[in-house]
Amino acid sequence: MDSGAPQGARARAWLVLLGLVWGLNWPAVKVALSGVSPWGLRTIGLGAAACTVFALGWVRGDRMAVHAGRDRWHIAVAGLLNVAAFNILLTFAQLNAATSRVAILTYSMPLWATLLACLVLRERLDRLRAGGLLLGACGLGWLLLPLVGHGLSRGVWLALAAAITWAAGTVYSKWARIAAPPMAVAAWQLLIGAVVALTGLLSFEGLPHWPSLAAVHHAVWLALGYHVVFGMATGYILWFNIIRQLPAGVASLGTLLVPVVGVSGAMLLLGERPGLSDLGGFALIFCAALCVLLPARRPAGLPAS
Fold first, then answer.
1. What is the rounded distance in angstroms from the CA atom of residue 44 to the CA atom of residue 81?
2. What are the tens digits of pLDDT across the range 19-32?
3. C or N: which end of the chain has fewer Cβ atoms within 10 Å?
4. Are 227 and 36 in contact (CB under 8 A)?
5. How far apart are alpha carbons 140 and 142 in whole angstroms?
6. 239 near 304, Cβ under 8 Å?
């Protein structure tokens, strides 16, 4: 019996766990933002994730240093797009829109990535992916058109910008062909994100006022703890173990559990009630993402969120 079979089964179980961990991170971030500033939240979360991935790499004996100057520049650009811009935009989106709506819009990312890959990498669309793009456009239209009459909120625009930034970072990473080990690439990208968040914290908010932390509600502390320990640190440990043992396409499809859990969690824990336009748009975008992520001539990888 091939020993890879038990490993594959374990990795799939981890994928389900990751969907739950990252999905529940959506309502946790919303609650944490009621008592912690957006810049502070991202500084703490990304800093913890960077330290965790560096530590995991060193424990496993992976080479974490990046020696090639070319790789350093590409990692810096990818880190700004994939981690820094994506996470910061997403945080401010959740401050200005319902968590369920932000989650739905963010997971339109595979559609933008497919479109950008066609334009930048000259990748060809097969019928399945073309159909996925059409479904995705219909889903976005279904979700956004009822909102146009009232004016699209800042949160909607920020969520779309986050999805496009994530897609741009994914396509850039594919174009750059970074030769450094994947664990090192991920760790340095997370560190770049943490440094950008810390710079924003110091520039726009200054040093935290520690005496005021005593007034923070216990629910905020619990949500912040969940975000740091599970949403970021544990989530990234699971993710990097999963992508070592499963094909990229399988791992990518598994991440589609995240918005399902995120929307459900927002309904159960935050009391949100998505409207018909939200649910219809979610169903179409979810089906569209399945179309563009299903294995074909090339695997389509998603970065961690």
1. 19
2. 899 999 999 999 99
3. N
4. no
5. 5
6. yes
Residue with tokens 């799939």, as numbered in its chain:
12
- pLDDT higher than 90, residue 77: yes
User: Of 83, 32, 38, which is closest to residue 203 (Cα–Cα)?
Assistant: 38
pTM score of the predicted model: 0.83
- Return the structure tokens found at 254: 């598994």
Cα–Cα nearest to 97, from 52, 147, 47: 147
